[in-house]
Design a protein that fits this description.
Elements lengths: L2 E4 L3 E4 L1 H16 L19 E6 L2 H9 L2 H4 L5 E3 L11 H15 L2 E6 L14 H10 L3 E7 L5 H14 L3 E5 L11 H13 L6 E6 L3 H4 L1 H13 L9 E5 L13 E6 L1 H12 L6 E4 L19 E7 L3 E9 L10 H10 L11 H10 L7 H24 L2
Parallel strand pairs: 3-4, 3-11, 4-5, 5-6, 6-7, 7-8, 8-9, 9-11
Antiparallel strand pairs: 1-2, 10-13, 12-13
């Protein structure tokens, strides 16, 4: 069954075909896919260990602003900037200004920005939105690194190149499995080299993202084999400014999940831990999609709420899919639908405790009878908890 993945633009493909094709390439390079290949020595940007890929809606933007100082350590988000909600009546230019202002008030330091949804520009705008958006972020002290790939429009990559010439910010290449540069003579490597020449950057000025999308969810063991071998045979392995391995196993939605608490394996984390343990050099950056699957991006640009109260709660190795009653349908419970969900979490073995982070404090209050909020709040607090858990886990591997 085909699923959609986001690698800068939406593609639909069979996950099995993606994994099998990648493994065939890896077999030629390594001669053996029976075990996870040890990654070569990878030079990383100092302190960078976590790259959550976030669709930058209001819930995710608010989550970044509320994240604790401890959870921010080593975290450099990659933000996919969405178009305005379809039912909001906002112009694209005004929407981008609002997004930049909200990010500027809630974040500081470095971030990766992906304006793939605006890659053709905005009609009647004198400059590409990438330029104006990053200028707005710079006013708040945010160093934005543009995200691109070989499949982007020429006008978009020209804007990326111009931004690097002005700000010397470098670039971020976000590549799906078919584009991973392995072996200096491969057509994949040639395409990446051609793009780097066009952008006017070297690998040392480039953050590389090996993005498995949802392939981890649909083929976790194959994805682990493929990413391990790819790291071992990566072109310019010692030269990239950083290398991230990203993907997600988070379920697409709550369909088919019964009310209550349902644990589902966080295969993106268990896979990364296996890669880290097998690495013979410095470890790659961990990338995930927080609590939202990328194959739902295109359907979530409206602001209609979900029909059931739900939280996606990260534990050590699992997603706890917490589902409650109807939210807004006829006779729905509205915000009260979340009270039972919060109570179930608080009473479960999975709950991290009120003091863990701001999200867990909110969950505790809701379990005690406070308002259960709305879908945007559930997204905000689920994201805060997830980013905090992932940051703590990475501190256990990389050190504080």
């Amino acid at each position: 069954m085909p699923v959609g993945c986001f690698f800068g633009r939406t593609k639909t493909f069979e996950v099995e075909k993606v994994v099998n094709r990648l493994l065939k390439v890896c077999t030629v390079l390594s001669g053996d896919v029976g075990s996870v290949a040890a990654a070569g020595e990878i030079i990383l940007t100092e302190g960078h260990r976590y790259m959550p890929i976030l669709l930058a809606r209001r819930g995710e933007r608010a989550a970044l602003g509320l994240l604790s100082a401890a959870a921010r350590q080593g975290l450099v988000p990659l933000l996919v900037i969405p178009p305005p909600p379809m039912d909001g009546g906002r112009r694209p230019g005004s929407h981008l200004i609002d997004v930049a202002m909200e990010l500027g008030h809630g974040w500081n330091g470095r971030m990766f920005v992906d304006l793939g949804y605006f890659q053709e520009g905005i009609p009647d705008y004198a400059v590409h939105p990438l330029a104006s958006f990053t200028d707005d972020l710079a006013q708040f002290g945010i160093a934005a690194v543009p995200v691109t790939s070989p499949t982007r429009a020429v006008v978009y990559n020209a804007a990326v190149a111009a931004l690097h010439r002005v700000r010397a910010c470098g670039v971020c290449l976000r590549l799906g499995p078919f584009d991973w540069p392995m072996g200096h003579r491969s057509h994949r490597s040639a395409a990446v080299e051609e793009l780097l020449r066009f952008l006017g950057v070297s690998p040392a000025e480039t953050d590389l993202v090996l993005d498995l999308g949802v392939a981890i969810r649909d083929g976790p063991s194959e994805a682990l084999q493929a990413s391990g071998i790819a790291l071992a045979h990566l072109s310019y392995a010692r030269e990239w400014r950083s290398i991230a391995v990203a993907g997600t196993a988070v379920p697409r939605d709550m369909e088919g999940i019964y009310p209550g608490l349902s644990p589902i394996r966080r295969a993106e984390w268990t896979n990364f831990r296996a890669l880290a343990e097998s690495s013979s050099g410095r470890r790659p950056v961990f990338g995930d999609y927080a609590i939202v699957s990328p194959d739902t991006y295109d359907r979530r640009f409206d602001s209609r709420p979900s029909v059931s109260a739900a939280l996606r709660y990260a534990s050590a190795n699992d997603w706890i899919m917490a589902k409650g009653g109807q939210y807004l349908r006829k006779n729905g419970l509205k915000s009260a639908a979340m009270n039972l969900v919060a109570d179930l979490l608080c009473e479960s073995e999975y709950f991290a405790g009120r003091q863990h982070c701001g999200a867990d404090e909110w969950i505790t209050d809701v379990a005690s009878g406070a308002s259960g909020g709305n879908p945007e709040m559930w997204l905000r607090y689920g994201t805060i908890h997830h980013l905090t858990v992932a940051s703590e886990q990475l501190a256990g591997i990389f050190g504080p």
